[in-house]
Amino acid sequence: MSDTVVITRPRAQCEGLARAVEALGRKPVLLPLLEISPLDDHTALRAELAGLDAFAMVAFVSPNAIDAAFAFIDQWPAGVTIAVVGEGSRAALARHGLTDANATIVSPRDPSRSDSENLLQALDLGALAGQRVLIVRGQSGRELMADGLRAAGATVSTVAAYRRSVPPMTPELAATLAGLIAAPKDWIITSSEALRGLMTLLHELDPEAAVAKMQQQHLIVPHARIAETANTLGLTRLTLTGSGDERLLAALQSQR
């Protein structure tokens, strides 16, 4: 296995993990597979955030949702519960001054199962019946959390805080992809959407050879849902770590 580790997070979230990978004696290569960009119009987001104290709970689907929303939040209202799906989102909240010491934060009980399904299991759904809940997310996303909360009797609003998109194929990206898949490497994949985007790009690069070469790569993924996506796409060489950079790094160390 090559010393190279391909990190596919959005560029703004790559640097800390890249430094940690380098500290292990590995060579990080940044390949952001999702571009995170601000909305053209923040009117709806501002309107929802201006009335935060009317909600019993606000759920953030990702660190990106937290960072985008807190650009418009001066102070978190007391008594409003925060729900997040993983340790990365807890770290993002901490950057904005919110921890278990000064806020009620709910996340999946098992850090290795950081997804909407396990967040719903961790919530006191009975207490949310008849209450208002806000979900802050990207412009597109799964409806499972909203559907589960509505089924429990909550009144659910959703609002977009940012846009996600797969980068377009360019000659430079084509050359980078061809070089990365030429020999087996470790790939850190932290999003099902990013993985699907990668496979779309590889089909565009070479529908047969590029995909076959990708099947020889080793994927390190933090969530069972990403592992399921990988298997559906024919990618079976993978390690499921659970949420948190420390688990991703431990998996890298075990490969040596």
UniProtKB/TrEMBL annotation:
It comes from the Bacteria. It catalyses: hydroxymethylbilane = uroporphyrinogen III + H2O. Keywords: Lyase, Porphyrin biosynthesis. Pathway: Porphyrin-containing compound metabolism; protoporphyrin-IX biosynthesis; coproporphyrinogen-III from 5-aminolevulinate: step 3/4. GO terms for molecular function: uroporphyrinogen-III synthase activity. One of its GO terms (biological process) is protoporphyrinogen IX biosynthetic process. Pfam families: HEM4. It is an enzyme of class 4 (lyase). Residues 17-237 form the Tetrapyrrole biosynthesis uroporphyrinogen III synthase domain. SUPFAM superfamilies: HemD-like (SSF69618). The keyword Lyase applies. Its EC number is 4.2.1.75. Catalyzes cyclization of the linear tetrapyrrole, hydroxymethylbilane, to the macrocyclic uroporphyrinogen III. Belongs to the uroporphyrinogen-III synthase family. This is Uroporphyrinogen-III synthase. It comes from Massilia polaris. The lineage of its organism: Bacteria, Pseudomonadati, Pseudomonadota, Betaproteobacteria, Burkholderiales.
